[in-house]
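Revision sheet: structure tokens.
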Amino acid sequence: MSALSSLGEAWRRGTWRPADWFLAARCGMEAVVLGWLLVVLPAVAFYLASSSRDAAAALSTGSVVRAATGLWSLALGGSWGTSTSREGALSLPLTGLTLLLLLLTRALVRRARPSSPASGGWVVGAATTTALVLVLVASPAASRTWTVVPATWALTSLVVAVELQRSGSGWPALGPWWQDRPAWLHLALRQARQLALVLTVLAVVVAGVALVLAGGRVSRLHDALTDGRFADTLGITLLQLGWVPTALVWALSWVVGPGFAVGSGSVFSPTRVVAGAVPSLPVLGALPTTAVGSWGTALPFVVLVAAVVVAWRDRSSLRQMRLRQAGAAAATASVVLGGGTALVCLAASGQAGPGRMAEVGPREGFTALIVGLLTLAGLGVVALLTHPWGQVVTRRGAGAAVDDTEDVAQEVREHVGTGSA
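Predicted:
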């Protein structure tokens, strides 16, 4: 009853409709519509450029809009087509487009400057309602596009909440709590952020090297697919850019060891490559054709080395903490990084066609587990060795080892002396 009473009180006072409600609602509508147009307008333009401009072509423009809406839904958890159809389903997320929609929403929310959580509610409500209308009006047949609505709600809510807190117009209780967070939690989040940046750079390097080494194969696939047509070249390039973050997640999974699959039964990892027929998308020409050899088993330890380096840079902060706090920081950072790895691996998985192409993406469970354990090992070892208690134990162990060595040496000398006599 208290929640209903609060809503009734807000309705009577008019606080449910703040002074900037119209600007907030417009911000939410613009975020969704502009994001949708980022896909629809280029699709229609490419279609008109590659088809005759007669009545039949104009009548089929609606099907192009529906197809573009299907592509737009891939950025928000949707699926274009069905698994039972001859063409199969396409549900491999366009994570590059997802990031673009996130940046667009953030820019519009910052411009609108919602004055309170109520204003933020209008932004979220307008965005969610607009997404629902577009799904009902422009969705392709037999496609799972309903996920656009909850995904739009979640993305917009996240952006609005962060921007409200950043501008000081959010929830007052959260500010002091965040500022007074424990030192070990602050250290854990900082280490997780630094390691995430290291893993991102590592994935970029690996993907770049693979693309350079397979440049000839990628170029031949591109030429065969576009036949030198500018519109086709631009369209294929933009589509592949939408999957660039997905490719980076695959590269990370390859470095960590479990690898990824492009089709059921296929494996692409440092120690094993089992390939099969794949779609003729040019970027897939950069897939590894052979394993790197026995040294590929050492690649995952790059994550361990990175964790050790990051923890060593924070050794002064670790010395000022109790051992259980340093351990909590290491455990929290490993859980955050491992959980984040699992989420991005799930976001880089899906279907890419019929039959065996229903299984595409990294092995998310093993990848997240290895990243988490190696991070915990690296951060934990440094936290133990740099802590005063750990240093005492290490010195005691070293002293005991020296004493044992001296005793053994003395016994050897006595034995040699006895034998000589």
